[in-house]
Amino acid sequence: DSGVTQTPKHLITATGQRVTLRCSPRSGDLSVYWYQQSLDQGLQFLIQYYNGEERAKGNILERFSAQQFPDLHSELNLSSLELGDSALYFCASSVAETEETQYFGPGTRLLVL
Amino acid sequence: QKEVEQDPGPLSVPEGAIVSLNCTYSNSAFQYFMWYRQYSRKGPELLMYTYSSGNKEDGRFTAQVDKSSKYISLFIRDSQPSDSATYLCAMSGYVYNTDKLIFGTGTRLQVFP
To answer: Quick check: B42 and A42 CB within 8 A?
Structure first.
């Protein structure tokens, strides 16, 4: 158990809908990262937050947004969902702003029908 | 060309075999190299972390980095059925003003009794 928690574990929704994925980092970790894992693309970095502030952006679509709250948990919002958004979404956390050792949560499996 | 290339496998070996997993990369600025293990339907778990070139050993696992060849390896000695998983290499180097990890697509390993 990495200490990173994610909810929900599974999510099934329809195209055009909006969902929110939640992540709680390990105790003491200030950085949260979001990744998308699909069969054809592998693990892709989406966005990083550090202590409530956006730190870096990766291949995140404009339909997606995230935030980190004062208690350091983070939410990833996915809107206007398309079939191609079906994937595993992982959250990872690390202690510092620049920290190579990241610890991953169990993921949320999203299926868009 | 992808920044990180990894043979997807699958790699099937008998119990007790020595396994060699490899990744090549193109960006010479990468400084940190990691191996993650991912069991089916689980989040990636950090196995090995290496800075710059050299070897690192941890139990049955040895990580090697050859920066001159832009090549990293993970060796598993005395492989066990419980080692059956997907192994992801990852690397970073603060090259994009972030410590985001760049992942290989993963090699699926199966160790049969």
So the answer is: no
Task: From chain A, pick out residues whose CB is under 8 angstroms from the CB of B58.
Answer: none
Nearest to B46 among A45, A101, A106 (CB): A101
User: Could you give the CA distance from residue B74 to residue B103 in angstroms, rounded to a whole number?
Assistant: 15
Check if the beta carbon of residue A106 is closer than 8 Å to that of residue A7: no
**Contact (CB<8Å) A90/B43:** yes
For A3-30, what is each residue's pLDDT tens digit?
999 999 999 999 999 999 999 999 999 9
Q: What is the C-alpha to C-alpha distance for residues B13 and B21, in angstroms, rounded to an integer? A: 12
**Cβ-based neighbours of B29, under 8 Å, separated by 6 or more:** B93, B95
Q: Are A88 and A21 contacting, i.e. CB atoms less than 8 angstroms apart?
A: no
8 Å CB contact of A45 and B34: no
Q: What is the pLDDT of residues B76-93, one digit of tens each?
A: 999 999 999 999 999 887
